[in-house]
Amino acid sequence: MKYYLRIIHFFIDSAAFLIFTLITVKMLENSLQIDELKGFLIFFYFFYYFISELLFGRTIGKLLTKTKVISIKNKLKPSFTQILVRTLCRAIPFYFLSQPLIGKGLHDHFSNTILIHT
């Protein structure tokens, strides 16, 4: 998958997350402490990727660029474990910079998944 698509996915998904964050902060600003809100947003960040890829094989960014995640093993929808590994790899700082170095993202490498055009 071309590296520029990964960057586009990142920016689209980040924009979606930012919009969600702004709405959430406005709605909960009086009922949550800032530390609770931080924890909630960190959880939601990972939850967004996990649920989107588990249920649909794609995030909003991937949907808009007509790409999706599949398993290398069987070319079908990734397993629960594969999506969990992909999601956890997002906690590695600058994980997306591995693409130019090893030819694919660390989250694809460790989860045995690839991104394809649909």
TrEMBL record:
Cellular compartments annotated: Membrane
Membrane topology: Multi-pass membrane protein
Main location: membrane
Keyword Transmembrane applies: yes
Alphabetical UniProt keywords: Membrane, Transmembrane, Transmembrane helix
One Gene Ontology CC term in the entry: membrane
InterPro entries: RDD (IPR010432)
Domain RDD: 6-101
Top-level taxon in the UniProt lineage: Bacteria
Transmembrane segments: 7-25, 37-56
Name listed for the protein in its UniProt record: RDD domain-containing protein
Native organism: Algoriphagus sanaruensis
